[in-house]
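Step 1: inspect the first sequence and its tokens.
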Amino acid sequence: MRRFWILPLLALLLCACSENGTEPTQPATETVTITDALGRSVTIPKVVERVICSGPGCLRYLTYLRAQDRAIAVDSIEKRKTRIDARPYAMTNPQFKKLPLFGEFRGRDNPELIAALDPQPQVIFKTYSTSGHDPEELQAKTGIPVVCLDYGDLGLRRDAVYESLTLMGMVLGVEQRAEEVIGFLKTTIADLAARTEDVSERPTCFVGGIAFKGPHGFRSTEPGYPPFLFLNAANVAAPESGKPPRHADATKEQIVTWNPEYIFVDLSTIRAGAESNSLYELANDEAYKHLTANREGRVFGVLPYNWYTSNHGNTLADAYFIGKTLYPERFEDIDPVSKADSIYTFLVGGPVFDELSKAFGNLAFTKLDASSIRIGDDAEVLEQ
């Protein structure tokens, strides 16, 4: 019976507050304390509906978690007009361009712009925490909790990817979607490995033109290039022992000595300039012209691996194309373009392969030769 007195009593209390000219006290926002990727204890609202994503790849992860509608502002990379882009998450979310600006790309946040946002974000997610404002400084200046993420990669730092997706999912209350994305990544990588783990003959291969804080020419490579790792491929640039560096510039002499049987060109190189991109070099440099793969027509274009840090969707899509190229009998059931679009649809909500390839002269997943040369006239440095 006692419960029937609660509502009338509450009504009397509210009336009394009103008659005394005071407003009823509002309940305080519930909070929880989490530990971020830097080991910092950060107190955040229990329910987070408004965020901003600072740093390379941060908004990509928000999109993977299907929480992109919670972003209330963006950094400058999202608002730039550029003829060439390789970010599937941005292609499926054109609304990002219309959101307010909170700072420059690569984590160079503007506390004044953040303070002026209305409504205010409840949490700032930040990748690459050493770029731009220190997280503690940014938190102190804005009064908004900053949660740092370790972006990781799908090569040797997959655990960091999984942990960051888990942490972001927990903060946003979308733990199930985070588990689904992690499961998708693990299953896809396992499929690639299973198809190739018992291959007896592995042709040697090399990937050139990898972007790293900007576009580069043919010597720019990745000793631990994830698609090669997934496929157990014989990457000539990989060290014989020890952990491979994230990026390397091979010498021309090394490449000639390696003389790989297959060459893959990261198409981000197109933006390196008229006589600096990999396609121009392969067609005109006498040393490269005599590489076996070049002479025998085994040079292929792949989608950019790095574009505002590593693109996991592109990485997986490239791996299926490379797998079909190196080991066609193991990938008879795979159409690389269809597979790419199924990956993009799961991760970012739609098929974007045609749009991506068109931006790079329709050279993705094709055999390249001298007639394939395309010169990029848009040389903004946007990659991480």
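Step 2: inspect the second sequence and its tokens, then contrast the two.
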Amino acid sequence: MPDQPALPPGSNNLKGMMWMLLSGMLMSGMHASIRYVSADLHPFEIALFRLLFGLLALAPWFIKLGWAPLKTNRPGLLILRGVLNIACMLAFFYALSITPLAEVTALVFTAPIFATILAVVFFGERAGLRRWAAIGVGFLGAMVVLRPGFQDIGLGQMLALFAAIVWGVCMVLIKTLGRTETSLTITVYMSLVMAPLALLPALWVWQWPTGEQYVWLAAIGLLGGLGQLAMTEALKVGETHVVMPIDFTRLIWISVIAYLAFAEEPGLYTWIGGAIIFAATAFITWRERAVAKATVVAGIEKSA
């Protein structure tokens, strides 16, 4: 009998959920820190320091492993991911500086929806009626948050949606890279590619940070670097449909922080829209897993 393909193991799902929970906490802290520092520093400059200090956060792995994290057979794809990610980061950081934190977070939850559409259009993946319905529901959630016709859609909301679209592309690339590259390699190359690209827009708005601001910038880099690593690890060790729902805790963390630190109270429509968006993305990830599992089972039965 030929070797039977194994179903994706679920033994690491708990670990993946813990990694995603940690990622949500770290990223929420980073987003709130960006809002605080952006009162005095331009978001483009903050983005540069986030990348530089993020690399320092990864230094212990280089000390332990040497240059091993830089070894890869897919430099082109890693560089493309970095180029796209810098556009996403600059738009997202600017949105955080001018838009309520919970609203930006809710809109960025649409990224998996865009990732699904991109996977269908550019990679030929099949999406059935139920997944297309979930995509439609997800966009309905975005409209609930934005409420066009009832409130003005500002630059911050448009930038958040742009960041979500580009991040959707990056999610597809990360998923592809995760088949051959380690989480550390993916994260390291992100910073190595993005830091030089972030330098030019940062120089355009440059002002030297104060001592206190350097501390905040270092915290942003540390939180962002570790948060990105935790997210990549969560998607790598756990099944996507299991770990992705944990990402919704970001809206809870950021809402609490925004209220305590900036007196921002998320509106009812932000919560309703965010919940709709997240329910749609959770269904999409579950459906992708169900289809993949059915394909594997069919392969086993066929080869038996």
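Step 3: confirm your contrast with the notes below.
The chain has one domain: 13-303. Confidence is low (pLDDT under 50) at residues 1-11.
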